[in-house]
Design brief:
Strand content: 5-15%
Largest sheet: 2 strands, antiparallel
Strand order of the largest sheet: 1-2
Keywords: DNA-binding, Transcription, Transcription regulation
Number of strands: 4
Protein name: Transcriptional regulator
Radius of gyration: 19 Å
Oligomer: single chain
CATH class of one domain: Mainly Alpha
Shape: globular
GO molecular function: DNA binding
Structural class: alpha+beta
CATH architecture of one domain: Orthogonal Bundle
Organism: Gordonia oryzae
Distance between the termini: 31 Å
Length: 156
C-alpha cells in the first residue's frame, strides 16, 4: 500500500518522515549504527526481502544518510556507511528505543546503553543546549522559526 507524500508540508517532522518513515528504514539505520555495513548482513539480521532492502538502501544513499563504498570489483559489492547526517539519527533511534523499552518491552530492555566513562547503564535525557537544564514538553514553548511562513499556524 502506497502512503501519501508529506513533501508539500512545511514541517520538519513530516520532511524527516519522507526520508526515514518507511518501517524498515529505521531498523537499517539502527543496524548501521551498530556497525553493520554489508548488504548480506543487513538482509540476514533483519530478515528483509532483498528487493525491499535494495530500495531502502538506495533511498538512504540518495538522501545522503549512507554512502556506498565499494569493497569488491567483480561483481561490484558495497559497504554502506553512515554519513554525518546518518549518524545524527542516533538520538532519534535511541529515543524510539527508550520509548519501546518503557512501553513495549514487558520483560525488560533487549539492549542497554552503558556509559563508557563511568560504566553504568544510562538513558539519554533531553537537556537545554544553552543552560543544561532538563527539557520536557511542559518546559518549552513553540514559536515560528525562520523557515515558517508568515501565516503558518503553530501547534497548540
Amino acid at each position: 500500500m502506497r502512503r501519501a507524500s508529506f513533501s508539500g508540508m512545511n514541517c520538519s517532522v513530516a520532511q524527516t518522515l519522507e526520508v526515514v518513515g518507511e518501517w524498515w528504514t529505521l531498523l537499517i539505520i539502527r543496524d548501521a549504527l551498530f556497525g553493520v555495513t554489508r548488504f548480506d548482513a543487513f538482509s540476514t539480521r533483519l530478515g528483509i526481502a532483498r528487493n525491499v532492502l535494495t530500495q531502502r538502501l538506495d533511498t538512504l544513499v540518495e538522501h545522503g544518510i549512507l554512502v556506498r563504498d565499494p569493497y569488491q570489483d567483480n561483481p561490484v559489492r558495497y559497504d554502506y556507511r553512515l554519513t554525518d547526517k546518518g549518524r545524527d539519527l542516533w538520538t532519534v533511534i535511541n529515543a524510539l528505543r527508550q520509548w519501546g523499552d518503557k512501553w513495549s518491552a514487558p520483560d525488560g530492555a533487549p539492549v542497554e546503553l552503558v556509559h563508557t566513562g563511568c560504566g553504568h547503564t544510562t538513558t539519554l535525557e533531553p537537556v537545554c543546549s544553552e543552560c543544561g537544564e532538563h527539557v520536557d514538553r511542559g518546559s518549552v514553548t513553540v514559536r515560528r522559526g525562520p523557515g515558517a511562513g508568515a501565516n503558518a499556524p503553530l501547534p497548540a
